[in-house]
């Protein structure tokens, strides 16, 4: 199976479990790996035959910038749902990074996989 990918989609959002985190926006970075059969797109050379990664990014920026969840897990699950239900992906891996959220670390976050990756 082929993979479409997005690295480090940067979005400011309200996220976190602490009172101070409900008052500010923080930056999250999103990585996506999306299973896709890209042969039709390659043969036609038309984006209409592809899963459009720009459209996905625009949809996710709209969703994430308006969201107010507490956990990175919740955000990752919502992102996977959007990509599968609205863009027809059969399998997706979503990584949500919350850089510098924990003192002494460069990065924390979560990575999930949803759906069935075809051979
Ligand atoms: N499993 C998780 N643990 C923690 C989360 C989270 O989203 N998932 N969040 C926090 C805080 O909001 C942290 O990011 C800020 O200091 C702590 N643990």
From TrEMBL:
Q: GO CC annotation: what is one? A: cytoplasm
**Which Gene3D superfamilies does the entry link to?**
3.30.1130.10
According to the entry, every stretch annotated as the Dihydroneopterin aldolase/epimerase domain falls at 4-114
| This enzyme's EC code(s) | 4.1.2.25
Where does this protein act, in terms of pathway? Cofactor biosynthesis; tetrahydrofolate biosynthesis; 2-amino-4-hydroxy-6-hydroxymethyl-7,8-dihydropteridine diphosphate from 7,8-dihydroneopterin triphosphate: step 3/4
Q: Which domain of life is it from?
A: Bacteria
In its UniProt entry, what is this protein called?
A: 7,8-dihydroneopterin aldolase
Classification from the root reads: Bacteria, Pseudomonadati, Pseudomonadota, Acidithiobacillia, Acidithiobacillales
Protein's gene: folB
């Amino acid at each position: 199976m082929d993979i479409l990918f997005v690295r480090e989609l940067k979005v400011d959002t309200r996220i976190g479990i602490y009172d101070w985190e409900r008052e500010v926006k923080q930056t999250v970075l999103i990585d996506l790996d999306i299973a896709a059969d890209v042969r039709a797109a390659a043969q036609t050379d038309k984006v209409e035959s592809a899963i459009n990664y720009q459209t996905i990014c625009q949809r996710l920026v709209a969703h994430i910038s308006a969201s107010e969840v507490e956990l990175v897990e919740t955000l990752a699950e919502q992102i996977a749902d959007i990509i599968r239900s609205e863009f027809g992906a059969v399998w997706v891996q979503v990584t949500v990074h919350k850089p510098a959220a924990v003192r002494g670390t460069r990065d924390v976050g979560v990575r999930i996989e949803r759906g069935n990756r075809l051979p």
